[in-house]
């Protein structure tokens, strides 16, 4: 289990090394082409050091035709999240809108947003709250106040703005493909009061109709299930092999799991939980029914 930047650095290094091999260059030859010492290329490829966006661009230019346009964009985005604070990664061009909130957001949250923005798909299990990508403004406000009690209202407003800005991935081109399984408790917990919950539930029923969203509810009648160990998110990415990562949130930190055995275990757990959940249409009907009774 590692923190986000360390995982990203190692993955980025593996992909850069694979592209160098495909280009037929040795690490020394690549270093000479970009005007570096060979040890810098080695440190980047082994994930031992951060890498600036400009460094990634220089290497990709050196590797030439083996790098597709889509690979280049994703590797540059991956480099931003791999860099961590103080390396210039946040200045990478592209969909890095969260740079404007760097004084407010912890680095781990920015890591999470960068993963979400670059992912092809996300699979998530939630036990307590509606996933951030599906929250209404007032629900997001109520969750933020409850989780971060005593926060000044301007900061609450800014965090809600971030939550809503994240939702743009569902309407991007191509959009993030989201598969979410919500415990029934998520629908019945009165966060923000009856009016806020009613609007949130109606929003869930509406967003569930989007072709890129698969929303299912795990009813109380299922009893005990694998998800009881805690919520998780699995991100998958386009065009880069073995880049999937599991994110586990804790009170003071997030953990990123990317070992093959961890990914297989969480992927299997998600499939099992999804199989026990109500089908999408039945889930939508239950959501609408609870909204009507709220």
From TrEMBL:
<dbReference type="InterPro" id="IPR010982">
    <property type="entry name" value="Lambda_DNA-bd_dom_sf"/>
</dbReference>
<dbReference type="InterPro" id="IPR043917">
    <property type="entry name" value="DUF5753"/>
</dbReference>
<feature type="domain" description="HTH cro/C1-type">
    <location>
        <begin position="16"/>
        <end position="64"/>
    </location>
</feature>
<dbReference type="InterPro" id="IPR001387">
    <property type="entry name" value="Cro/C1-type_HTH"/>
</dbReference>
<dbReference type="Pfam" id="PF13560">
    <property type="entry name" value="HTH_31"/>
</dbReference>
<protein>
    <submittedName>
        <fullName>Transcriptional regulator</fullName>
    </submittedName>
</protein>
<dbReference type="Pfam" id="PF19054">
    <property type="entry name" value="DUF5753"/>
</dbReference>
């Amino acid at each position: 289990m590692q923190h986000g930047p360390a995982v990203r650095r190692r993955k980025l290094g593996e992909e850069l090394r694979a592209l160098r091999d495909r280009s037929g260059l040795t690490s020394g030859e690549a270093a000479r082409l970009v005007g570096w010492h060979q040890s810098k290329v080695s440190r980047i490829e082994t994930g031992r050091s951060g890498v600036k966006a400009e460094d990634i661009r220089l290497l990709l230019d050196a590797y030439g035709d083996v790098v597709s346009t889509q690979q280049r964009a994703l590797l540059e985005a991956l480099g931003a999240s791999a860099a961590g604070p103080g390396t210039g990664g946040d200045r990478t061009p592209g969909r890095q809108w969260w740079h404007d909130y760097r004084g407010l957001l912890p680095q781990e949250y920015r890591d999470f947003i960068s993963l979400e923005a670059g992912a092809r798909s996300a699979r998530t299990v939630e036990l307590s709250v509606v996933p951030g990508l599906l929250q209404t403004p007032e629900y997001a406000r109520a969750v933020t106040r409850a989780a971060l009690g005593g926060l000044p209202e301007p900061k609450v407003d800014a965090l809600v703005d971030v939550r809503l800005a994240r939702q743009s991935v569902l309407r991007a081109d191509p959009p993030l493909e989201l598969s979410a399984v919500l415990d029934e408790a998520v629908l019945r917990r009165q966060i923000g009061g009856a009016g806020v919950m009613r609007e949130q539930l109606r929003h869930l029923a509406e967003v569930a109709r989007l072709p890129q969203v698969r929303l299912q509810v795990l009813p109380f009648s299922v009893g005990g299930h694998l998800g009881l160990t805690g919520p998780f998110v699995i991100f998958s990415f386009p065009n880069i092999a073995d880049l999937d990562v599991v994110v586990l949130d804790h009170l003071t930190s997030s953990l990123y799991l990317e070992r093959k055995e961890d990914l297989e275990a969480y992927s299997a757990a998600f499939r099992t939980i999804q199989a026990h959940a109500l089908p999408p249409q039945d889930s939508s009907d239950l959501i609408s029914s609870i909204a009507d009774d709220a």
